[in-house]
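Example record for the data management plan.
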Amino acid sequence: MRDAPRAVVTAWALCLGVLSAGVLLPSVAGAQATDQVDDGATLASEAVVQVADWVIASRDNNGLPFVIIDKAAAEVFVFGPSGQLRGAAPALIGLARGDDSVPGIGDRELSKIRPEERTTPAGRFLAGFGPSAHGGDALWVDYETAVSLHPVVTSNAKERRLQRLQTPTPDDNRITFGCINVPAAFYQELVLPAFTGTNGIVYVLPETRALDQVFPSFRSQATHTTGLVAASAAPEPSAATGLAANGLPGSLDAH
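Corresponding structural encoding:
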């Protein structure tokens, strides 16, 4: 995570193993963020539905659990190895809009990272648990750029991170240095079980480029195979600095 230079994180190792297939889980208290339609399907953006269908049809996840992160909607979706939707939750993401990380950013001090450089990079990443600089493990998404997925950080009350996760739009969810913050219950009850004893794939959807530019083998599928239903387009994200739509500051120090 970009809470310290990558150089101070030691002994990072991905876990190996096999995760047994699961089923669609009920919502985790305080974690389920997406709406559901009458048949129990979960609403998601068209891009999430398309990528999930492609991953399952092409087996791009190589039989591993996978996560889709929708930056535009500030949402995270967790799937089992066979494409079972485990659950979804809101997320806090990088302050700045963009799909690339600045070269060498993983080794830089936080004070040296400008607001416009605090992006959550798009792409397909092999992810796994490893130690973080603050103790405990985090799900490392992109070790080279020091981006991980971890429970929401609440040490700085002024950042109002829990409130940001609970607002109905993603306008105030851009605050971190690039890491993905999710509700603690979602992390403990869905992310941890999905990735314990195994690696997994994390797909971070682009917001400035087309899907096939970030995922070269992406192909739109004719049929839907997940428990997802496409919702209306997500609201445009707020600017990298200034006040978000609900008045929360959008440019605070964050992990």
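Summary line stored alongside the record: Confidence is low (pLDDT under 50) at residues 3-33, 233-254.
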